[in-house]
Amino acid sequence: MQKRTLGKTGWEISVIGFGGIKLPLISQRECEILLNKAIDGGISFVDTADCYGDSEEKIGLALRGRRKEFYLSTKIDERDTIGVRKKLERCLRRLRTDWIDLVLFHDVRDFEYDRIFNSGGLETLQKAREEGKILEIGISIHHSIPMMMKAIESGVFSSLMIAYSAFDEDRLAADLLPMAHKIGIGLIAMKPLAGGMLTDRPSVPKRRRFIQGESLAHVSLHYVLSNLNITCAIPGMMELDELNENLKVGRQPRNLTIEEIKALMECVGEAGKGFCRNCGYCLPCPEGISIPDIFRFESYYDRYNLREWAREQYRSLEVHADACSGCEQCLELCPYGVSIPEKLKIAHRTLQ
Ligand code: SF4
Ligand code: SF4
Questions:
Q1: What is the mean pLDDT of residues 228-247?
Q2: Same structural domain for residues 251 and 309?
Q3: Are 141 and 245 within one domain?
Q4: How many whole angstroms separate alpha carbon 325 and alpha carbon 77?
């Protein structure tokens, strides 16, 4: 199983982690078999949450005696002193452990982000860290990019858990992930199969061989892990087949070809099309237009309101978007279906 470093923690963890969200759906005996096979197969990161039914209890029981063989992560949905303290004690008890490696504030929404700081939640986890009950503090945020930025900039979280799959890449890959990675925040991809959308949609029967004999789930995981800013993906698992597939990916993650990405994007559907991922497949442009840079500046302008900065960067380019001759050579090469010439015109109007 390949490993990557989880940011500044320095932990070397398996690129595939075990997501414990589905464990309430199977028996304790099945959990024991599954989790022990996962650890035997090289998985060294197990994630759960206080609110995932009896997942913590099942993990605690199934992996008793093997605690030093994996990093354990759980999530707490309280934000204040009393709530966090109570839940943390319960997590430790249910997980049958003296310490938890990573505790994250779970699914934090915009309106409650400040409460972590103002209501004692953070302080409580920091105290628990001093006492050795936990080793690291993280935060899980599903979709709000501004809040992810805030969390990264706060400097208090060693890890950020985000919903990240082929569906989400457009929003995150271009700037937020490289930035977080660069400053040493460990990035963990939850929902790498888009909560099951990339395994068993009606149009894509479960485990159908998708590309070159690999399933859609398999290919989707390769896709997530081909982003080297991501340390680890944590698909939820409840069956041995799923585990075996995921182990295969973790042993040999690979970059997808343009054709494979195109096929994957067809599955993602219209919702996943049309956004520049800054992959650079469309280059070189015969006119010398730096297509991905221009779309990146445009995204800074739109998403983060960094208007002056984006315009300055655009002005500093030698060739601007209005040099596009409309030859359409780039269209064939873009696996994401970006209408490049058309969108360049819009970007030029925005940034000039
Ligand atoms: S190939 Fe498409 S997605 Fe990739 S950089 Fe070019 S326009 Fe963006
Ligand atoms: S259509 Fe425009 S951007 Fe695309 S390759 Fe031709 S000149 Fe370059």
A1: 93
A2: no
A3: yes
A4: 53
Point out the domain boundary residue: 230, 265, 300: 265
Count CB atoms within 10 A of the CB of residue 77.
16
Q: By residue range, what is the domain housing residue 75?
A: 3-265
Q: Identify the nearest ligand to the CA of 334 by its number.
A: 1
Residues 312 and 163 in one domain: no
> Which residue's CA is minimally distant from atom 3 of ligand 2?
324
Determine if ligand 2 sits within 6 Å of the CB of residue 276. no
Q: Does pLDDT of 94 surpass 80?
A: yes
Ligand 1 pocket test target in 339, 340, 342, 345 with most atoms within 8 Å of CB: 340
Ligand 2 atom 2, closest CA:
324
Answer whether residue 105 is part of any domain.
yes
For CA atoms 8, 13, 15, 20, the dihedral sign is negative
Residue nearest to atom 2 of ligand 1 (CA): 334
Residues 76 and 200 reside in one and the same domain: yes
What does each C-alpha distance from 81 to 87, 117, 126, 157, 213 come to in angstroms? 10, 10, 11, 17, 51
Peptide bond into 253 cis (omega under 30): no
Which of these three, 265, 282, 316, is where a domain ends?
265
Sheet with 71-76, side-by-side order of all strands: 18-19, 45-47, 71-76, 100-105, 134-141, 159-163, 186-190, 232-233
Averaged pLDDT for residues 54-60: 96
Whether ligand 1 lies within 6 angstroms of the CB of 261 is answered as: no
* Token digits of residue 27: 């028996």
pTM: 0.74
- Residue with the bigger pLDDT between 342 and 293: it is 342
Asked whether residue 247 is domain-assigned, the answer is: yes
Q: Same structural domain for residues 237 and 339?
A: no
Closest among 93, 185, 182 to 141, alpha carbons compared: 185
What is the position in ligand 1's atom list of the atom closest to the CA of 340? 7
**pLDDT band, residue 293 (cuts 50/70/90):** confident
Mutate to test the pocket of ligand 1, among 171, 258, 282 (most ligand atoms within 8 A of CB): 282
